[in-house]
Amino acid sequence: MEEHHHHHEEEEGHGRLIKIIVAAVLLVAAIIIEKKTDWEIWQYLLLFLVPYLIVGGDTLKEAAEGLLHGEALSEDFLMSVATLGALGIGFMPGAETQFPEAVFVMLFFQVGELFEEIAEGRSRKSISHLMDIRPDSANVERSGEILSVHPEDVKVGEIIVIRPGEKVPMDGTVLEGTSSLDTVALTGESVPRSIREGEDVLSGCVNLSGVLRVRTTKAFGESTAAKILELVEHAAERKSRSESFITRFAKIYTPIVVALALVVAIIPGIITGEWATWIYRGLLFLVVSCPCALVISVPLAFFGGLGGASRKGILIKGSNLLDTLSKLETVVFDKTGTLTEGVFEVTAVHPEELDQKELLHLAAHVERHSTHPIAMALRNAYPDEQDDCSVEDVQETAGHGIIATVNGRKVAVGNDKLMTKLGAEWHPCHHEGTIVHVAIDGEYAGHIVISDRIKEDAAAAVAALKKQGIKRTVMLTGDSAKVAEAVAGKIGLDEFHADLLPAGKVEKVESLLGEGRLAFVGDGINDAPVLTRADAGIAMGALGSDAAIEAADVVLMDDKPSKIADAVRIARRTIGIARENIIFAIGIKVLVLILATMGLATMWMAVFADVGVTVLAVLNAMRALKG
Asked: pLDDT class for 247, splitting at 50, 70, 90?
């Protein structure tokens, strides 16, 4: 369905281009025929109506629909009145025909619309990638057998079996089995969660190691994965895109112009009785006031800004977002993968008895075969495993750690629960991060601190944003408050909120939304709902999940948070260029309008003033490409 919609939009763009070309050719032909022949006026009208309707049919339709919906004063309406008036003026006594002008004005307007379509860069694809977190089947126990059924057919309270490698189809409580769950899709946190009897599992996680029997607590449609998908789908609808500048401009500009044109046409007409002259001037007023230069050059400046940004590795998915970015006041970051690398490394070793190297050496041996990111960090810290130590009877307890015999000594590596179980007297550490304790033969031997590396340019990124005038920087994370506090302090953030689940992040962002424009920067699937909810969602592209990239408005192709400040700078520059064009175009317009009212301007002059202004405005807009 989405795909079909997408193709339909592309075809629309091609259709418009073909119409413009055909109408232009027919217009030239009609002008030649007009010069060479001597027909009745209505025959010429029919001749020019062909290209007029080809190129302007849609505009007339939009204008008519607008009238029906009470949105009379759109740019479509302005174009339609001016051009229809110009077509009709030739029938007034003593007036010149204005057919070519009418078609030309409409043609020009369509070229502007075409530019706008291109500039919009149709980049919102479906969020089908998110569907990956929805499992296709569930293994349910019924009367002693295990059946594979569609998750929707499983009732609350039934028992399902989740084997290693399978997705958790619905929320529930573990009855038996221990395992670790990959929760990246839901929380964006890369450390697997250990799970055992009595604990709750959330749908959308992937079961990594053991078989779990789970009693379901929520129906498929109510479960976490389904809720996240729903959040994203609705957030997209709830977020009204800021109207394009031209539309906002037309709302104020059009009524004023139409009123003035009526004044110009009617009042002098009543006084002098020269209706044709004054109605012509009134219509001329409308044609001149038609904002062609703006309609083309403003989207083009935006288009240039988007192009300049993309050369810097910043993809902005639509010109209206430049407006939002230029007014940003709050930037909210997700922690893992955005401000930190999402890569774990050993940051401190605190031995009790042995030296640091020995402690690491033993821990790395015990963790030799584990696939857990923390084990990987330990192995990376002590790479030379090929020594002559013997490592035997390795036993892993999910949620606790690993015990193995190294050179005849029983070494336990794990969390405080494991230490307590062994009766080793562990003590906490003042360093932030994940603390891995080590005990040898039941005696506490020290601990190793493993933490997520902060990105090199994270602090610089926050400083650059502050320099751009961003008022608040906030970090949201599913991590513990202690870790969050340490990271926020190092980077120089204004505030942080820890221990948040995806729904909690959406709520936090919603509570911050009222205070100026807000951008959210994230990279996990779990960030998709928040990205869609914020005024501008910024996704880290290279490592970010597909779903986040789909849901975001701005995608940073490399993972440098400092690019956000670049995006804001480019947006402000582009808006500045657009403003120059607006002031310039309106200035020239006012001049020609004054001349038109005094009878010193013709329809062609009006059109050429418009073309000239447009060309200059377009050249100015090209400056935005520099990025």
From this structure: low
Q: How far apart are CA 500 and CA 463, in angstroms?
A: 25
Domain assignment of residue 428, yes or no: yes
In which residue are the tokens 């007339």 written? 60
Torsion of CA 94, 100, 103, 109, to 10 degrees: -100
Is residue 197 situated within a structural domain?
A: yes
Q: How far apart are CA 608 and CA 605, in angstroms?
A: 5
Measuring CA to CA, which residue among 486, 534, 241 is closest to residue 340?
A: 486
Q: How far is CA 412 from the centre of its chain?
A: 46
> What are 43-88's pLDDT values in tens digits?
888 989 999 999 999 889 988 888 888 766 666 777 787 788 778 7
The band of 608, judged by pLDDT with boundaries at 50, 70 and 90, is low
Q: Which domain holds residue 470?
A: 313-341+455-570
What is the pLDDT confidence band of residue 474, given thresholds at 50, 70 and 90? very high
Question: Which band of pLDDT confidence, cut at 50, 70 and 90, is reported for residue 185?
Answer: low
Run of H or E including 182: strand 179-182
Q: Tell me the backbone φ, ψ of residue 574, rounded to 5 degrees.
A: -65, -45
Q: How far apart are CA 295 and CA 283, in angstroms?
A: 19
Return the C-alpha torsion angle 370, 375, 380, 382, nearest 10.
-90
Domain boundary among 431, 453, 475: 453
| pLDDT range class, residue 161, cuts 50, 70, 90 | very high
Q: Are residues 204 and 225 in the same domain?
A: yes
pLDDT at 26: 92
Handedness of CA 190, 196, 199, 200 (dihedral sign): positive
Residue (of 552, 566, 585) closest to 321 by Cα position: 552
d(CA 483, CA 152): 39
Q: Do 490 and 483 touch, CB atoms closer than 8 A?
A: no
Which DSSP helix (H) or strand (E) runs through 396?
A: strand 391-397
DSSP class of residue 540? E
Neighbours of 142 (CB within 10 A): 11
Active site residue 388: no
Tokens encoding 13:
């763009």
Q: What's this model's pTM, rounded to 2 decimal places? A: 0.60
Question: What secondary structure letter does DSSP report for 164?
Answer: T
pLDDT of res. 3: 45
The pLDDT tens digits for 523-580 are 766 777 888 888 888 887 655 555 666 678 887 767 788 889 999 999 899 888 888 8
3-state secondary structure string across 403-429:
EEEECCEEEEEECHHHHHHHCCCCCCC
Residue 350 DSSP SS3:
strand
Give me the catalytic one of 76, 171, 334, 527: 334
**Into how many domains does the chain fold?**
3
Handedness of CA 399, 400, 405, 411 (dihedral sign): positive
According to DSSP, the residues that pair with 318 across neighbouring strands are: none
CB 269 within 8 A of CB 278: yes
Residue 381 has pLDDT above 60, yes or no: yes
Strand residue runs (E) in 228-354: 314-316, 328-334, 340-351
By C-alpha distance, which of 102, 88, 117, 95 is closest to 56?
102
Q: What is the CATH number for 176?
A: 2.70.150.10
- Pair 155, 222 in one domain: yes
Q: Which residue has the tokens 């902005």?
A: 316
What is the average per-residue pLDDT within 192-208?
82
CB burial of residue 137 (10 Å; 0-12, 13-18, 19+):
middle
Residue 380 lies in a domain: yes
